[in-house]
Amino acid sequence: MFWKYTLFETKLLLRNRKSWFIAVFLLLFFLLFFMYYKQDVPLSLVEQKRIEASKMHATFEHVDNLRHDIPEVAEVYDYLTEQSSLINFQVWYLGNGDDSEQYIENGLELNQLRLKVHELGNEGIPDHLITTKEEIQKDDALLHYIKDNQLPIESDSFATNHYFTKALQMMTGLLFLIVVLISGNELLVYEQRHQTVMKGFPLSFMKRVTSKVSIHFVYLYTFLLLGFFIGSLYVAKSLEASEFSFPVLIYKNGDYVAASTQQYLLYIFIGLALVTILLLFLSILLNMLVKNAFANILIGLGIFLLPDLVMAAGFKTTLLHPIKYIDITKVLSGDLAIELGNSQIDYWHAMASLGVITILLIGGIYTINKLVNHRVPKDSTLEKAS
């Protein structure tokens, strides 16, 4: 009977125009994003280093005026001189020098000098010219990964990662929340409107919920993956970005580590799978509490924005932080940890929290259904859970 009910729910899904609209959106999102974003060509490593050299020159101008009067600034100036020399050598190694090994060694030495300047309090350096510790950690992780895996410095994969990470950052978080909420905002509506038809399926309420969530999960996730695959083909052919050897930085245990592009994508899509399941169960719960499809979407959005609103009001929101974990790319990049001021927020911490929230939602659905069954007649829409 479970499979008959699942087949019935699948037919309802396929006949729903809203479902096809969402499917088309997911299929075309990455393709259209890459078509629009192709004009944003990422800076080459040489260009990045030249910008660093220009930034260093501006730093010298500020520090030079103070170094004769303040001993700490004089020490900072000496370190900056060494840094400037290393950056200029890196530019040369990327060009005529063509020495990847020496470029990496100079980069690692450069990061150590930057950390020493931090230890001196960045005396004499304006805030906008300071290289943050996060930037140093990221660069260090990349260089170590390239050195350990003997990768070419100027890799086409740098462009591939640029396009993929930008597209996934756009899809996850608020946009993906809206897509799943729209998909699931009427999960119980048919049962509420056609109670006579539903009596033909003698299944417990929780089995029906499992069926609905499974169908919508497979439908959403399949079109999401297909859409990403179509977008990837466009990137590979039109933007000539099909190399995946260059690493992507992820935030882990309060530090940054470099991971392969394949590992990064695996983390992203496993995370999105869990987020999809969580949001579908949330939709079921909202369907039970508020029998209004539009209100369900608004309440879901309100829950997601609640930590930002509370933080804007000046209150600590540590207990509300897990709500923001559904933005899985911000979790992986470490941006969420910085934004919320909580260094414990990394991928596995977020996944564990989302898993616990999903279990709590399932428990809430079960409990509410049990309570309703004690208050309403047996022929109610919500059947007693076994």
TrEMBL record:
Keywords: Membrane, Transmembrane, Transmembrane helix. Coiled coil: none annotated. The chain crosses the membrane at residues 20-37, 167-189, 217-236, 264-286, 293-315, 347-368. The keyword Metal-binding does not apply. It comes from the Bacteria. This is ABC transporter permease. It comes from Ornithinibacillus salinisoli.
